[in-house]
Structure prediction request, 190 residues.
Amino acid sequence: MLTHWQDAAAVNKPEFGGVEVHRDPAAAREISTYAEDGTYRFTKGQVNLKRGWLMALGSLEELRQALDHFYPACLGLFLAEEDGTLEVEFLRDKLQRQTGMYRFARNISDAGAQQLVRTVCGPAHQCAKRILWQIDAATPLEDSEASRFNGIPGEVPQNEAIPLLCREACNHFVAECRRVAKTEFEQKPA
Prediction:
């Protein structure tokens, strides 16, 4: 069984505490598309996954499929981290690959990138993932709520959870890098 962490106690009640029961792992795709308030969840790592559902699945394969719909690649990333094979991409490497309108993102300063982590990443800013990447090989992320977050929601014990891992800056972060880099450029003295 799989449910929202805040519904875990309810599903032990008769009739699963009234939550909606799903037996098809593909239902996870629809459950995870919109938040409780009906807004589109632009990234699967947002903390606003709606409640009130239970996935009653028949096999480990169906459980893996459901997890991949909720949080793409979360199980694979977790297993790769556990066995030491997870490859993490530095922000600078990702930004150097950007083309077109996002090419300017590579001009963001280290200070601008560090500030973006504090204002875009972490649960305070709707992201439930644990950041594994750095600015570059010599520049770790500065201490912040986002850089300290373990990728496990609420008070779920670490040994009972699969943390959500961020192995590289997401597309939203890259877009924000572009915006900040442009602002930094415009504010430079002529």
The mean pLDDT is 93. The two ends are 61 Å apart (CA to CA). The chain has two domains: 1-72, 74-190.
